[in-house]
Amino acid sequence: MAINYQLILDSICDEVKGLLSKGKVASYIPQLSAVSPLQFGIAAYCLDGRVFTAGDAQKKFSVQSITKLFALALAFAREGDKIWSRVGREPSGNPFNSLSQLEYEYGIPRNPFINAGALVIHDILAARFVQADIALLQFIRMLARQPALDFDKAVALSEHQTAHRNYAIAHLMKDFGNLHNPVETIIEGYCRQCSITMNCIELARAASFLANHGSIPWDGTRILDASSSKRLNALMLTCGTYDAAGDFAYRVGLPAKSGVGGGIVALVPGELAIAVWSPGLDATGNSLAGVMALERFTTLTARSIF
Ligand code: GLU
Fold this sequence. Notes:
The protein is of the alpha+beta class. Helices cover 44% and strands 10% of the residues. The protein binds glutamic acid.
């Protein structure tokens, strides 16, 4: 029977209010530090087309690292298993922008969701498309059913001006031969990729194909075969929430991808995609209220992949 999630989302929205002032907004990208932490939105996109929302679900935010999920899906759909010769599939156990592991692992990033891995994925897309960032934007527009999605130029510029660490990562990988395009092209494109803004409804809808064995729920378009979709879900579970993926799996029990803008998108395979946003982050870089909201969602609904 189709469940009505409205009361649950409303009650979660109420429950997390006290947490909103406790998180810390990301400050290493200057433009992001200007966002008020006192915001919270949640949207569930069910595979049967029903949408439930609460709070600031319509408010646009910087999806940042969540774009790594869509970039990976696009690269995996086009290149298949070839991508795994250039990027691994293990949790890194290190911060998302760490350089140290990359040095002793010969420029092969641990997974596609840390920055090094996302730069390699962007490089793979750049070899395939004239402009990787535009190709990715168009892909996300199609998935979100929202042709108006766009980059936020101010955020992209702000990130680019402070992208010293990402430059260092890219140069190190270039030295190891694991970046084929010019460093500048990849960093610029990656900063634009990260600056895409979406709201919770768009984000949940865009990720829903991953809850639907790789097919877009409303028209059946196949983005990934079922097996590849399963594999991306597995990577989300093991590597999708920074260095806290173990704790997130323990508390929430769903595959998910988070970003420093405070967004998290999670999947209940076979049923729905759910997106939350609250800009205040915990010490691991995940949205403090967002993780709690998802924990409450799986507790109240008894939904989990386990
Ligand atoms: N654009 C950000 C960076 O590369 C993404 C960070 C994130 O959301 O994890 O630092």
